[in-house]
């Protein structure tokens, strides 16, 4: 069974996805890390994000075992990932890995921007997580403060708004709620309440009474 969780930057979809996967005993993939790792590799190799051949080559060579690298979470990498994610060839090159990951037994939870629409349109449960830009910036800023970042709240808010606009406005696989996705609005919810709401959606959709 596949569970697709999509939403904008810092909406909490990663935390929800990981917790849901733990509870269900499923595999979990934060697909944003693929775009982040690709952006990091392209920048390290001084490769133009529009160089189709080189971008596809780097995407195919991506070290998917190294996605735990904490450096991938840096705000500059998120911005670069959002830019490379506009490239259709980069997206296509990452598609097969994501679909193979999703097909694993006993099931998988994937989070991103296009999981319910493009990567796994057949997903059994689709959840679209949102929160206001200000609340997302507040959460991200808090996280960054804990890692001694000097970024101000306004810097973080601007980064989020810029990425939202780019991720929603791109022509290929834009961030959009799939028609059959449940909307989970978390602006006024803490993480445990949001998790319970997501589990209730999964319970209703799958009939799993143990959740
Ligand atoms: O989820 P994240 O903030 O780590 O993602 C970083 C960028 O990667 C995001 O701004 C857009 C891109 N991305 C994407 O286009 N499609 C996905 N499925 C996941 C991320």
What do these coordinates show?
There is one protein chain. The protein is α/β, with parallel strands linked by helices and 211 residues long. It has a single domain (2-204), classed as P-loop containing nucleotide triphosphate hydrolases (Rossmann fold). It contains 9 helices and 5 strands; from the N terminus they run E-H-E-H-H-H-H-E-H-E-H-H-E-H. It has helices at 13-24, 32-44, 52-60, 75-84, 88-102, 115-119, 133-146, 153-169, 191-206; strands at residues 2-6, 27-30, 108-112, 125-130, 182-185. A 5-stranded parallel beta sheet has the order 2-3-1-4-5, sandwiched between helices. The model has no long low-confidence stretch (mean pLDDT 96). It binds 2'-deoxycytidine-5'-monophosphate (DC). Residues 9, 31-32, 35-36, 78, 81-82, 85, 112-114, 163, 167 line the site of 2'-deoxycytidine-5'-monophosphate.
Quick take:
By secondary structure, this protein is of the alpha/beta class. The protein is built from nine helices and five strands; from the N terminus they run E-H-E-H-H-H-H-E-H-E-H-H-E-H. Helix 1 crosses helix 9, helix 3 runs parallel beside helix 5 and helix 7 packs across helix 8.
